[in-house]
Amino acid sequence: MFNLRKDARRRGLTALAVTAVATVALTACGGTAGASGSGSASDLDAALKKGGELTYWTWTPSGQDQADAFMKEYPGVKVKVVNVGTGGDEYTKLQNAIKAGSGAPDVAQIEYYALQQYALSDSLLDLTKYGLDGLKDKYTASTWGAVNINNGLYGLPQDSGPMVLLYNKTIFDQYGLTVPKTWDEYIADADKLHQADPSKFITNDAGDPGFANPLIWQAGGRPYKTDGTKVTIDLQDKGTKKWADTWNKLLEPGLLSDIPTWSDDWYKALGNGTISTIITGAWMPGILEGSVPDGKGAWRVAPLPSYDGSPTTAENGGSAQSVLKQSKNPALAAAFLRWLNSSDSSIDVFLKSGGFPSTNAQLNADSFLNEAPEYFGGQQINKVLVDASKNVSTGWQYLPFQVYANSVFADTVGKSYAGKSDLNVGLKAWQDNIVGYGNSQGFTVNK
């Protein structure tokens, strides 16, 4: 997505502290103070005409420019843009405001993996009340699915992160590697490269739930299922084991670099060829170009390897914007959100900052598809990225306490990474931890 995403990731998943939303899921089940809002699309138009003031929390680099464009179009509305921190930093402040019953913004940026817990805590406005469910056809299926929870619409998608493979063509050519279509081919490339030069690795992975979950998703794993307060966790389902057993073939023989992603050493390794591929979301090319100048001309984009050579992929990252129930002017907040994530004038501003959109019109525009950055050797990389967005497998759910689950990944699965040992052992330990946590928070969790 953006360079700020790099900064957020660099802080590490420990920033997604338990305090961020450890108790958000059930503490507000009785409702949240403030107007809940009801009405129709015409109410949004009326609210824009009447005007008013809004507060918008976001870490998106384009946030202020988008707000400025909105206020130019609707001079009767004043939007105050506040960056209270990325990801977990924002969630901590948001949770504190929800718990206090005041202090929340009108509109907030929330990542897809964290959205469900806010929706289930009755902290967000159901946007179907204003007819925004009619915007469905504007968005990719995967991002639209991410904001629809229990038959309610709790945000509008902004960006998306269909997973792809970025690879260093210079290194691949030097060592006679073929661009892998399957994970078996990827493992063979990893072994061939490391055997030829033990200082080089196909990729790095020091243990990251934001990386593991999408790969489990792509493998067909569906370890989390939520029905209200009933939760099922099975981190040994068929797809999850398929990913773990496959990844063990890279981890256990030492074919993975343990350089932490987003560290200075990682960027250096991408620039000097020590790490030759990145398995990542479609927002990554802009970060690579801006952060690894030594890689200019060397890197290319390819579909993510799969288990059978099909184009099946998953989503890695991405955010929506939501209206908080605390908003004193929910119709105006919903009208701003409608403009923010569905109007061409807003999305054009978003694209200029390097964003990868969730809207079909922009994804299919010739001007977008035909971009051929010199950094990627003149390859029309957006065609590969857009194809990936069309091949995201469906049916994935996150936990209603995923922020907590991610925060203890290092203490459980991380031990398998540290010992270069069976990931299934770590996954079982992770499951035991988060099952216990969920039950302690009032959920009924089965495994």
Mean pLDDT over all positions: 91
Shape: globular
Q: Enter the CATH topology name of the largest domain.
A: D-Maltodextrin-Binding Protein, domain 2
Binned strand content: 5-15%
Q: What's the helix count?
A: 22
Radius of gyration: 22 Å
For CATH, the homologous superfamily of the largest domain is named as Periplasmic binding protein-like II
Write down the CATH class of the largest domain: Alpha Beta
- The secondary structure category is alpha/beta
Task: Please tell me about this protein's structure.
By secondary structure, the chain is an alpha/beta fold. Helix content is 45%, strand content 13%. A five-stranded mixed sheet has the order 2-1-3-14-6, with helices on both faces. It has a three-stranded antiparallel sheet with strand order 12-7-13. The chain has a three-stranded mixed sheet with strand order 9-10-15, covered by helices on one side. The longest helix has 18 residues, at 423-440. The relative contact order is 0.20. Residues 1-37 have low confidence and may be disordered.
